[in-house]
Design goal:
The protein is of the alpha+beta class. It contains four helices and 16 strands.
Length: about 230
C-alpha cells in the first residue's frame, strides 16, 4: 500500500547546530530552507529539521537509521570517533554505529546495499507507543509486516517502505528511545485507501488536493503524524 518513505521530520531547538551536524559532520546536502525548516537530502528521502512553531512539530528523541555503503563503514568510524562517543553493534554480517545529534536524536549509520556516495536513504525509524498491540494492528493495516518481537514483548519490528520499530517506553541500543510525535511522510498510489484502512482509529484527518497530486494526513493514537502523498 505504501511504496516509499518520503520524509522523516525531526524537531530541532536551534537550526545552526542542527545544520552543522547534518551538513558538515555527516556531509549531507541542504536542499532547501525556510524560516523554521531545513530540508536535508538522505538519498530519496527528505530529512526535515523543524523548529517547534506549528503542527506537525517533528519528532523528539527519535531513533532512526541512515544507510551507508558497506565499504565506507570504517571511514565513517575513523571520521566520527574523535568527537563522538560511538557505539557499535553487529547485525549478522552488517555493522552499525550510533551517535547523537545536537537535539538528542539517536542516529544510526548502518552498512547497507546502497550506492552512495555518503548517506543514501533511511532504512529504519523507531516510534514510541503506548500499546504495542494497538499500534501493531494499525500499521499492519497500512501494509507493514511483523518480522520480529523483543524478548520482553515490549517492542515489534515491522517491514514496509522502511523498517518500523514500535517500542513501548524503554531504552534500546545506545540508550536510544523511540520518538514521540514523529512526522512521517509516505508515497502511495492511493492516499484515500491508506486513510480508509485506519480511519476508525486515527485522531485527525486533513486533506489537501492539487492539480497533480493528492495528500492526506492523519494522527495516530500515539500522536504520530502520518501523511500519505500520491506517487
Amino acid at each position: 500500500m505504501l511504496t516509499s518513505l518520503a520524509w522523516l521530520g525531526l524537531e530541532v531547538k536551534y537550526r545552526s547546530p542542527a545544520r552543522r551536524f547534518y551538513e558538515e559532520t555527516l556531509s549531507m546536502t541542504v536542499r532547501s530552507e525556510r524560516a523554521n525548516e531545513l530540508v536535508v537530502e538522505a538519498g530519496e528521502t527528505d530529512l526535515l529539521l523543524r523548529r517547534p512553531t506549528s503542527i506537525p512539530r517533528g519528532g523528539l528523541h527519535t531513533h532512526y537509521a541512515f544507510s551507508i555503503p558497506s565499504e565506507t563503514y570504517d571511514d565513517w568510524w575513523d571520521r566520527l570517533e574523535p568527537d563522538y562517543d560511538l557505539e557499535e553493534v553487529q547485525f549478522g554480517s552488517a555493522k552499525s554505529l550510533y551517535l547523537y545529534d545536537p537535539d538528542g536524536n539517536c542516529v544510526e549509520l548502518g552498512q547497507s546495499d546502497v550506492d552512495g556516495p555518503g548517506i543514501d536513504g533511511i532504512f529504519e525509524v523507531v516510534l514510541e507507543v503506548e500499546s504495542l498491540e494497538r499500534a501493531e494492528s494499525l500499521y499492519a493495516d497500512l501494509g507493514f509486516e511483523t518480522v520480529d518481537r523483543g524478548n520482553e514483548r515490549t517492542r515489534v519490528r515491522m517491514d514496509g517502505p522502511m523498517a518500523l520499530e514500535l517500542w513501548e517506553p524503554q531504552l534500546g541500543i545506545a540508550d536510544a528511545r523511540g520518538g514521540v510525535h514523529v512526522d512521517l511522510g509516505f508515497e502511495t498510489a492511493n492516499p484515500e485507501a491508506a486513510v480508509a484502512a485506519v480511519a476508525d482509529r486515527v485522531c485527525r484527518l486533513e486533506r489537501v488536493e492539487s492539480e497533480n497530486s493528492e495528500t492526506m494526513a492523519v494522527r495516530d493514537p500515539d500522536g504520530h503524524h502520518l501523511t500519505f502523498v500520491s506517487s
